[in-house]
From TrEMBL, chain A:
GO terms for molecular function: NADH dehydrogenase (quinone) (non-electrogenic) activity; quinone binding. NDH-1 is composed of 14 different subunits. Subunits NuoA, H, J, K, L, M, N constitute the membrane sector of the complex. This is NADH-quinone oxidoreductase subunit K. Keywords: Cell membrane, Membrane, NAD, Quinone, Translocase, Transmembrane, Transmembrane helix, Transport, Ubiquinone. GO terms for cellular component: NADH dehydrogenase complex; plasma membrane. It is an enzyme of class 7 (translocase). Its EC number is 7.1.1.-. It catalyses: a quinone + NADH + 5 H(+)(in) = a quinol + NAD(+) + 4 H(+)(out).
UniProtKB/TrEMBL annotation, chain B:
Its main location: membrane. The lineage of its organism: Bacteria, Pseudomonadati, Planctomycetota, Candidatus Brocadiia, Candidatus Brocadiales. The keyword Transferase does not apply. This is NADH-quinone oxidoreductase subunit L. It comes from Candidatus Brocadia sapporoensis. One of its GO terms (biological process) is electron transport coupled proton transport. It is a multi-pass membrane protein. Coiled coil: none annotated. It holds the Pfam family Proton_antipo_N. PANTHER family: NADH-UBIQUINONE OXIDOREDUCTASE CHAIN 5. The chain crosses the membrane at residues 30-54, 90-107, 119-135, 141-161, 173-195, 215-232, 253-271, 277-299, 311-337, 343-361, 382-400, 415-440, 461-480, 514-538, 623-641.
Length: 100, 642
């Protein structure tokens, strides 16, 4: 029997993988994908909880998250393209001029 | 008709606003006639109010006009309300009447000045402030007028502010007045603490119901503090020094300050608070002593001054001393009477001296005048009337009022007051006629450059002179002994029974009924002696004065330098203040402590920032790491924190 605990643990694992990916990877696209992973981990827990609590609100939230994620993907990819045109790299260690 | 009283204030205010905002774009004639018209209308309304007041029975002559609620804070309530009673009506008639003539005169006198509209704007504001001062029905509103008068005097004394001496004089007037106002403000606070009200009617009725013992400490303190204010505004010892310097302003301004407004404020205030002052014999003694000493002191300085306006300035201080003497011995009516007659003849003298200065293209030194009588006849005649009036020759205005003050000083006060006052009267007659003789008689010492331009002033300047000369002539008949109309009129406010008491005491007591008449003869004789001495010294034997000056060189020098009072004040108050200001307040408190703490905080923030900025690496990974750490911390706190 798969309980809510399993869903939440899987969600936590996926989220942690996403966080670690954001922290240690250098390729902007990979980081971007890791952020998507974090979002979807949250989506998973939303759906699981909605099912568990027998409420539609959690599922509704998932739609919002997906909409925002889609918009974010569009804007984010556009930024990455723009950065690549300027610096010919998407290695974020080379994009560090925003500092003191 | 009494309801119109607010209009008296409104007209000058309208004149101020229009001339102040749009005066630059208006034609000169418009500006002048607007300002004059405002005061003229004010005078008409004042007269209507006066008629309205006369129609009431004497005991009910008190009318309060509530304008709006002004300040309400806890138990402190102050309304903006006006009070019409015989005292304030006398004051507004004098202020608007004499003020109107001075405005009219100013049209001609200031015609060539480039600050024409500014001048009339200030002048109207001055009259407005003074009217507010005398019409208010509580101490706080009176204080507003009191301060506004100080402000206007500052603006007008420093009217020609490009001149250093003028701006210095304006500052001096302002600062010295501030010292007095400080006392006045404290007095008002003490009144509120004591009576829980600042309305005239409430305070004075509380006093008259006998809740306070005669000579109680609180009342003495209140009256003394108020008197400090009066010494500042009315130029008495020790705060008189600003007034001679105030001569830096245009001459009509001097006339306005000295006659209709400003300096009479102190006398008015003491007369208004007569119920309080009568409760404190000690303060009364102080007032009378300061008054008589000032009268004598200023008169002695006036003996040797050579600036035509400065002589008049010292004579003003001296005459104000008489008014305070009268108030100090309890003869408030006599004080207000002298205030009124003095307003007439002093305005006349100042305007006439302005006419002389105008004729001589700005010359003010009487050593460079002389023999002007045939050249400017109207000015001469009016100046003569003013001089005779101030010297105290019957039947001119000054005689009756000064004689009454001296009589009251003798009957109610003591022989010392009288003798000092009488001696000051002798000096007054002497220096005023010295001024007259040196200006208009004898040989002509005018330099020929000014001589070419010598001319009588235009009509709109001589007309006010003639009007004021008429008033100086008849002004005394309002208060002639026996049929004292002014005293009857003022009796509800100032307690007219006081005078009959004196008369009663005179006729019943050891003095006998002949005393007032004897006093009149003595006063006249004193004045005539003064005139005779001046005639001897400056007409008959012109060298005599120089010889006397040589003979008593020390005294002459002392008088010429005004007893070195300015220098003494400089040494005692001004220089130490300046020193403390620069050495301690500026260089230590301001630079070190205030600037230091502000700069120190900025420096500290800068140092901390220069350390913390290394957190901003530019690597997104670091920022994401901080966010994650923060999130984890929040979660840990949320789960385990409680």
């Amino acid at each position: 029997m798969i309980t809510i605990t399993h869903y939440l643990v899987l969600s936590a694992i996926l989220f942690t993988v996403g966080v670690i990916g954001v922290l240690i990877r250098r390729n902007a696209i990979i980081i971007f994908m890791c952020i998507e992973l974090m979002l979807n981990a949250v989506n998973l827990s939303f759906v699981a909880c909605a099912h568990y609590l027998n409420s539609m609100q959690g599922q509704l939230f998932v739609f919002f998250t997906m909409t925002v994620a889609a918009a974010e993907a569009a804007v984010g990819l556009a930024i990455i393209v723009a950065v690549f045109r300027n610096k010919e790299t998407i290695n974020i260690d080379d994009i560090n001029i925003m500092k003191w | 008709m009494l309801n119109l009283v607010a209009l008296i204030l409104l007209f000058p205010l309208i004149g101020t606003v229009i001339n102040g905002l749009a005066g630059k774009r208006l034609r000169k004639e418009t500006v002048g006639y607007l300002a004059c018209g405002a005061i003229g209308l004010s005078f008409l309304v004042s007269f209507m109010v006066f008629i309205g007041l006369l129609q009431l029975p004497p005991d009910e002559r008190l009318f309060e006009k509530h304008l709006f609620r002004w300040i309400e804070s806890g138990s402190f309530i102050s309304a903006a309300a006006l009070q019409v009673d015989p005292l304030s009506v006398v004051m507004i008639l004098v202020i608007t009447g004499v003020g109107f003539l001075i405005h009219l005169y100013s049209i001609g006198y200031m015609h060539h000045d480039k600050g024409y509209h500014r001048y009339f704007c200030y002048l109207n504001l001055f009259v407005f402030s003074m009217l507010l001062l005398v019409l208010s029905n509580n101490f706080l509103l009176m204080f507003i007028g009191w301060e506004a008068v100080g402000l206007c005097s500052y603006l007008l004394i420093g009217f020609w502010f490009e001149k250093k001496s003028a701006s210095d004089a304006a500052k001096k007037a302002f600062v010295v007045n501030r010292v007095g106002d400080f006392g006045f403000a404290l007095g008002i606070m003490l009144i509120f603490l004591t009576f829980h009200s600042i309305d005239f009617t409430e305070v004075f009725s509380a006093v008259s119901h006998g809740n306070f013992e005669k000579g109680s400490f609180t009342v003495t303190m209140i009256t003394l503090l108020l008197f400090i204010g009066a010494t500042g505004k009315s130029a008495q010892i020790p705060l008189y020094t600003w007034l001679p310097d105030a001569m830096e302003g245009p001459t009509p301004v001097s006339a306005l300050i000295h006659a209709a407004t400003m300096v009479t404020a102190g006398v008015y205030m003491i007369a208004r608070c007569n119920a309080l002052y009568l409760l404190s014999p000690f303060t009364m003694t102080v007032v009378a002593s300061i008054g008589v000493i000032t009268a004598l002191f200023a008169a002695s300085v006036g003996l040797v001054q050579n600036d035509i306006k400065r002589v008049l300035a010292y004579s003003t201080i001296s005459q104000l001393g008489y008014m305070f003497l009268a108030c100090g011995v309890g003869a408030f009516t006599a004080g207000v009477f002298h205030l009124m007659t003095h307003a007439f003849f002093k305005a006349l003298l100042f305007l006439a001296s302005g006419s002389v200065i105008h004729a001589l293209s700005g010359e003010q030194d009487i050593r460079k005048m002389g023999g002007l009588k045939p050249h400017i006849p109207v000015t001469y005649k009016t100046f003569l009337i003013g001089t005779v009036a101030i010297a105290g020759i019957p039947p001119f205005a000054g005689f009756f009022s000064k004689d009454e003050i001296l009589l009251e000083a003798l009957v109610r006060g003591n022989f010392i007051y009288w003798s000092l006052g009488a001696f000051a009267a002798l000096l007054t007659a002497f220096y005023m006629f010295r001024l007259l003789f040196m200006t208009f008689h004898g040989e002509c010492r005018v330099d020929h450059h000014a001589m070419e331009h010598l001319h009588e002033s235009p009509k709109n300047m001589t007309l006010p002179l003639v009007a004021l000369a008429g008033l100086s002539f008849v002004g005394g008949f309002f208060g002639i002994p026996g049929a004292n109309a002014l005293e009857h009129f003022l009796a509800p406010v100032l307690g007219g029974h006081g005078h009959t008491e004196v008369r009663g005491a005179v006729s019943a007591g050891h003095h006998g009924a002949w005393l007032p008449y004897l006093m009149m003869v003595i006063s006249t004789a004193i004045a005539l002696v003064g005139i005779f001495l001046a005639y001897q010294m400056y007409i008959k034997k012109p060298g005599l004065s120089k010889k006397l000056a040589e003979r008593f060189r020390l005294i002459h020098k002392l008088l010429l330098n005004k007893y070195y009072v300015d220098e003494i004040y400089d040494a005692i108050f001004i220089n130490p203040t300046k020193k403390i200001s620069t050495q301690v307040l500026w260089k230590v408190i301001d630079v070190r402590m205030i600037d230091g703490s502000v700069n120190g905080i900025a420096w500290l923030v800068g140092r901390i920032g220069s350390v913390l900025r290394h957190l901003q690496t530019g690597y997104i990974r670091n920022y994401a790491f901080y966010i994650v750490v923060g999130c984890i911390l929040i979660i840990v706190l949320a789960v385990f924190g409680r």
